[in-house]
Amino acid sequence: MNAKSSILDKSQEELEEYCIKNGFKKYNAEQVMRWIYSCRLFDFSKMSDISKSLRKNLDENFNVVLPEIVDTKYETDENGSSKKYLIKFSDEETIESVLINYKNRKTLCLSSQIGCRMGCAYCETSSLGFTRNLTSGEIISQILTVEKDANFRITNIVFMGMGEPLDNIEEVEKSLNIISNDRFIGVAPRKITVSTCGMLNILKELNFDEYRYKIAVSLNASDNKTRSMIMPINKKFPIEDLAALINSKKPSIHNKTTLEYVLIKGLNDGIEDAKKLIKMFSPTNVKFNLIPLNKEQDSAYLKNFERPEDTAVNSFKLKLANAGFTVTIRFSKAVSINGGCGQLKAKTINF
Ligand code: SF4
Question: In the chain, what are the domain boundaries?
Answer without folding.
Answer: 5-63, 68-337
